[in-house]
């Protein structure tokens, strides 16, 4: 039976990353742990991570990675082959880019970070992005352009052959939750449909409430055909009811589809980038 190891490394600053990485050599009591040269000890640690013959499985968690520490991770720590896993968004995408034939010189850190933000830092989506890059031999920039185009749903439906998640695509993960709330909480679905037309960052609820409140019955008739008046009326009634509105937002927040915050400037909602 293999031996399982889990390591947590602080990667917020280069000094902390180097210190915690060097501790691996001491914790594992590896040959070379008494060496004074930092590079030598890091090489010993990476060799242990790369060793495919040892009966071990490991997980290396890199916490709070920054652009500055990413280069050190890829150059000095990231194993070229391994018998474990690394939990870090930039590294997963970098690995996918390299498997797709793109060198790290070509895959800029800015593009990697932008791609991660575009999927809302969702680990499954990042996993899937790496799989897409590998499968289509695509560049990071090309995939980023797809995420920012009308093709995004096709990319999110891509079956991820690298994933260890139960579901293999982002769409397959999101759809059950959306179907469930459409049946149990129709007000939440109404809110989502409206918020999807807004910028995902800090949507002020007061603007939507005031806009709905300004529409009286006569104005609704002027704006829409009779077939759409009832649907608009449902939306207006929802935003006029503080209780219904709060309950609907609470439901989408419970499913991690949005975050509701209250500040001095008012109450705002931030929806997940993939919604």
Characterization of this structure:
The protein is α/β, with parallel strands linked by helices and 275 residues long. The chain folds into three domains: 87 residues; 82 residues, no CATH class; 87 residues. It is built from 14 helices and six strands. Strand 2, helix 3 and strand 3 form a beta-alpha-beta unit.
Distance between the termini: 42 Å
How many β-strands, per DSSP? 6
Biggest β-sheet description: 3 strands, parallel
**How do the SSEs run, as a string of H and E?**
EHHEHEHHHHHHHEHHHHEE
Approximate strand percentage: 5-15%
Which oligomeric form is depicted?
single chain
Pick out the low-confidence regions.
160-168
The helix fraction, in percent, is 55-70%
Count every helix, treating DSSP H or I runs of 4 or more residues as helices: 14
- Overall morphology: elongated
Q: Radius of gyration, Cα only, in angstroms?
A: 24 Å
Q: What is the average per-residue confidence, as pLDDT, rounded to a whole number?
A: 70
Structural class: alpha/beta
Topology, element by element:
Elements: E1 3-10, H1 14-27, H2 38-50, E2 56-63, H3 67-77, E3 84-87, H4 89-99, H5 109-118, H6 123-136, H7 140-147, H8 152-156, H9 170-184, H10 186-195, E4 203-204, H11 205-213, H12 217-223, H13 226-240, H14 242-254, E5 258-263, E6 266-271
Parallel strand pairs: 1-2, 2-3
Antiparallel strand pairs: 4-6, 5-6
Helix pairs in contact: 1-2, 4-5, 4-6, 5-7, 9-10, 10-14, 11-13
């Amino acid at each position: 039976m293999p031996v399982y190891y889990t390591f947590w490394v602080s990667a917020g600053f280069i000094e902390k990353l180097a210190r915690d990485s060097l501790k691996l050599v001491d914790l594992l009591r590896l040959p070379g742990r008494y060496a004074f040269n930092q590079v030598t000890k890091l090489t010993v640690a990476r060799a242990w991570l790369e060793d495919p013959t040892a009966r071990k499985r490991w997980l290396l968690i890199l916490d709070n990675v920054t652009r500055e520490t990413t280069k050190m991770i890829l150059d000095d720590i990231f194993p070229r082959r391994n018998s474990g896993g690394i939990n870090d968004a930039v590294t997963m995408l970098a690995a996918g880019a390299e498997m797709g034939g793109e060198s790290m010189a070509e895959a800029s850190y800015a593009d990697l970070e932008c791609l991660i933000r575009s999927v809302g830092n969702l680990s499954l989506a990042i996993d899937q992005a790496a799989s897409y890059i590998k499968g289509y031999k695509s560049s990071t920039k090309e995939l980023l352009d797809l995420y920012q185009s009308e093709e995004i749903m096709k990319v999110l439906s891509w079956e991820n052959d690298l994933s260890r998640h139960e579901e293999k695509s982002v769409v397959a993960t999101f759809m059950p939750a959306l179907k469930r709330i459409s049946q149990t909480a129709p007000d939440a679905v109404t809110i989502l449909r409206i918020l999807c037309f807004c910028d995902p960052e800090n949507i002020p609820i007061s603007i939507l409430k005031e806009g709905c409140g300004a529409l009286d019955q006569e104005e609704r008739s002027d704006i829409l055909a009779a077939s759409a008046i009832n649907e608009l009326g449902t939306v207006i009634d929802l935003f006029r009811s503080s209780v219904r509105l709060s309950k609907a937002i609470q439901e989408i927040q419970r499913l991690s589809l949005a975050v509701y915050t209250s500040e001095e400037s008012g109450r705002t909602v931030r929806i997940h980038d993939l919604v």
